[in-house]
């Protein structure tokens, strides 16, 4: 015989277990439905690459969870595809140089990993908004995209490179080293220019007896290529130097002769002379030296070339 209390406890336990079993069956059905939906979603999920190329980076493996991107939170980057047949360089150009850069201008690319190989390129895009590196104290830079012509198979995405962009070209241009360029106060430059014209015409000049040691070079006439890599501005373009005149000193009978110049294209080392007063000619000797030395040089100062360094033999 079973006591009534024991029978009631057994009945209660049976009802509880039956309810648990029913809940478990419902969980199984719910999980089975979720599995079916997940399998259907998987079959319909296809990733389309915007370009045909080679996978250069795989960030997740099969079975890992990925996060769908939203407006405020970027999603998981699954992989990176690169089209190695078409390579481009993203260059940062100073704000003083970007104004002379346009699409379709030719460029030269020197990749650090390929030191003995110069690659040709073409400008494909010039950034419209600048960026200033935070905390660097540097000026504003603009992004310029350069497509590399016929990239070699050894070129890889992410490599570092230097870019030279040809912004202009002149045939038979009169060029001189940038180190010959000086800037003088406008009034002084005008007086020197008038005096130099008299000297050039053969009139007896008043010459200083001061002697200065400097380096003299001859100007040359050639095709001038202007390439942009770093910011280069003339002294007359600065608001602080509006009253100064750019010029160059030539050497005539051992003394300095000032020429006012109008400049054209320029590279890192040379600048084009569009006009000069008095005129300059190809092959004419000019004074080249540190900017401070040229700034202190005056019309009529005596100039003697520095002796070239000589090689010495050792026993």
Automatic annotation (TrEMBL):
It comes from the Bacteria. It is found in: Cell envelope. Residues 17-28 have a biased composition (Basic and acidic residues). Its main location: other. GO terms for molecular function: transmembrane transporter activity. SUPFAM superfamilies: HlyD-like secretion proteins (SSF111369). InterPro entries: Beta-barrel_YknX, RND_pump_MFP, UPF0194_transport. The keyword Cell division does not apply. It holds the Pfam family Beta-barrel_YknX. The keyword Coiled coil applies. GO terms for cellular component: cell envelope; membrane. Residues 87-165 form the YknX-like beta-barrel domain. Residues 207-220 have a biased composition (Basic residues). Residues 1-28, 119-158, 198-242, 295-315 are annotated as: Disordered. Residues 122-135, 229-240 have a biased composition (Polar residues). Keywords: Coiled coil. PANTHER family: EFFLUX SYSTEM COMPONENT YKNX-RELATED (PTHR32347). Belongs to the membrane fusion protein (MFP) (TC 8.A.1) family. This is Efflux RND transporter periplasmic adaptor subunit. The lineage of its organism: Bacteria, Candidatus Eiseniibacteriota.
């Amino acid at each position: 015989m079973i006591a009534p209390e024991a029978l009631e406890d057994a009945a209660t336990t049976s009802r509880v277990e039956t309810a648990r079993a029913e809940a478990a069956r419902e969980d199984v059905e719910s999980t089975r439905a979720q599995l079916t939906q997940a399998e259907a979603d998987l079959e319909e999920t296809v990733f389309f690459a915007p370009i045909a190329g080679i996978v250069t980076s795989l960030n997740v493996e099969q079975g890992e969870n990925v996060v769908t991107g939203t407006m405020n939170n970027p999603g998981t980057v699954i992989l990176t595809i690169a089209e190695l047949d078409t390579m481009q360089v993203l260059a940062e150009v100073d704000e003083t140089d970007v104004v002379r850069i346009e699409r379709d201008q030719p460029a030269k690319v020197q990749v650090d990993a390929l030191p003995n190989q110069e690659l040709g390129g073409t400008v494909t895009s010039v950034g419209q908004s600048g960026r200033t590196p935070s905390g660097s104290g540097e000026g504003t830079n603009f992004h310029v995209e350069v497509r590399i012509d016929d990239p070699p198979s050894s070129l890889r995405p992410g490599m570092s490179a230097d870019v030279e962009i040809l912004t202009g070209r002149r045939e038979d241009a009169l060029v001189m080293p940038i180190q010959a360029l000086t800037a003088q106060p406008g009034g002084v430059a005008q007086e020197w220019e008038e005096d130099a014209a008299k000297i050039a015409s053969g009139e007896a000049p008043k010459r200083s007896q001061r002697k200065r040691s400097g380096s003299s070079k001859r100007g040359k006439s050639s095709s001038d290529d202007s390439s942009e890599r770093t910011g280069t501005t003339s002294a007359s373009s600065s608001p602080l130097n509006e009253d100064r005149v750019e010029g160059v000193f030539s050497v005539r009978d051992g003394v300095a002769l000032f020429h006012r110049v109008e400049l054209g294209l320029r590279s890192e080392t040379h600048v084009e002379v569009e006009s000069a007063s008095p005129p300059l000619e190809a092959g004419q000797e000019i004074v080249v030296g540190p900017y401070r030395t040229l700034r202190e040089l005056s019309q009529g100062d005596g100039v003697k070339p520095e002796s070239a360094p000589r090689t010495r033999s050792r026993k």
